[in-house]
C-alpha cells in the first residue's frame, strides 16, 4: 500500500504521500532565444516568454511544430542557454541548484536495464550506495503501479507501462518540476486516459507541478489547470483551461478550438 511506504506523511489523509522538495514555484522571466541561420541572419525561436507554474499546478504549453515548445523545454531542462531572460525556482533546494526532470514522448528508456535499473538511473549521480538508490526507486515504482515488474525489460512492457517507468524515473529525482514532452502522444486513446489519470493522482499525492508540452488541445484540457498557446516563438494567450475554451481571445486560439473534433459550445467553468 502506498500509505505504508517510508516517508508517508503522518496524520495526512489516506492516500497522501509527501516527498520533500515538490511543490516549488517556477518562473520563466522574459525568456528569449535566437539562432543564426546558414546565411548568418538571426532567427527568433522564443520571444519574451513570461510564464509561471504555481505549486501543485499543471500548465500546458500548446502549439504546432516549430512554435518554440522544444526550445523552451531545452532551456528549462538546462540543455540550452537562453539569449536573454531566466528561469528561476522560488524556494529551490540543493544549495540553489534547481532540478527539472523530463518525461519523453518515446519513453527514452535504456533497453539493457530493467524497470528497477531505469528508475534508479538518475539516482546514481545523487546516491552512490545501492541501498540509497533502491529505497526511493521502490517508492515510485509502487506509486506508478509497477510493482511486480521490477525485473522486466522495456521490450517486455506495453507502451503505457513503459511510460509509467519514465514517470517513475523522473519522480525518483524529486525535481522541482516535471516537464512532460508530448508524454502521451505515442499512446492510443485508452492508454492515454490511464496515464493522464496517473498524473492527476500523483499531483494530488505529491503536490506535483508540471509543464505539459503538447500539440493536442484535448489532452491539455483533460489534465491542465492553465493553457499557454504558442505561435511563432511567443505565447499569444494564457488562461485557465475553462476560460480559454469558453472565451478564446486570440485568432490562433479560436482556430485551434474550431479544429477540435466534435467540440460543441464551451467548457463549463
Descriptive notes:
- Helix 4 runs parallel beside helix 5.
- The protein contains eight helices and nine strands.
- The longest helix is centred in the C-terminal third of the chain and has 18 residues, at 189-206.
- It starts with 24 loop residues before the first strand and ends in an 11-residue tail after the last helix.
- The chain has a six-stranded mixed sheet with strand order 5-6-7-3-8-9, sandwiched between helices. It has a three-stranded antiparallel sheet with strand order 2-1-4, with helices on one face.
- With 269 residues, the chain is of the alpha/beta class.
- The chain has two domains: 23-99 and 177-192 and 200-269, P-loop containing nucleotide triphosphate hydrolases (Rossmann fold), CATH 3.40.50; 110-174, no CATH class.
- The radius of gyration is 19 Å and the shape is globular.
Amino acid at each position: 500500500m502506498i500509505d505504508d511506504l517510508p516517508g508517508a506523511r503522518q496524520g495526512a489523509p489516506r492516500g497522501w504521500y509527501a516527498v520533500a522538495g515538490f511543490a516549488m514555484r517556477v518562473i520563466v522571466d522574459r525568456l528569449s532565444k535566437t539562432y543564426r541561420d546558414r546565411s548568418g541572419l538571426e532567427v527568433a525561436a522564443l520571444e519574451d516568454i513570461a510564464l509561471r507554474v504555481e505549486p501543485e499546478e499543471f500548465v500546458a504549453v500548446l502549439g504546432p511544430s516549430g512554435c518554440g515548445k522544444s526550445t523552451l523545454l531545452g532551456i528549462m531542462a538546462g540543455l540550452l542557454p537562453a539569449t536573454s531572460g531566466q528561469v528561476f525556482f522560488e524556494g529551490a533546494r540543493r544549495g540553489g541548484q534547481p532540478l527539472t526532470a523530463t518525461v519523453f514522448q518515446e519513453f527514452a528508456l535504456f533497453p539493457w536495464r530493467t524497470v528497477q535499473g531505469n528508475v534508479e538511473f538518475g539516482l546514481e549521480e545523487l546516491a552512490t550506495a545501492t541501498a540509497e538508490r533502491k529505497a526511493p526507486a521502490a517508492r515510485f515504482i509502487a506509486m506508478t503501479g509497477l510493482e511486480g515488474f521490477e525485473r522486466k525489460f522495456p521490450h517486455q512492457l506495453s507502451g503505457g507501462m513503459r511510460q509509467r517507468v519514465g514517470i517513475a524515473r523522473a519522480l525518483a529525482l524529486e525535481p522541482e518540476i516535471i516537464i512532460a514532452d508530448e508524454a502521451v502522444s505515442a499512446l492510443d486513446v485508452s492508454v492515454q486516459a490511464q496515464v493522464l489519470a496517473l498524473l492527476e493522482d500523483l499531483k494530488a499525492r505529491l503536490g506535483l507541478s508540471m509543464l505539459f508540452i503538447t500539440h493536442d488541445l484535448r489532452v491539455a484540457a483533460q489534465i491542465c489547470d492553465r493553457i499557454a498557446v504558442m505561435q511563432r516563438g511567443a505565447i499569444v494567450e494564457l488562461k485557465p483551461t475553462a476560460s480559454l475554451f469558453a472565451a478564446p481571445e486570440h485568432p490562433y486560439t479560436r482556430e485551434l478550438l474550431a479544429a477540435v473534433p466534435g467540440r460543441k459550445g464551451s467548457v463549463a467553468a
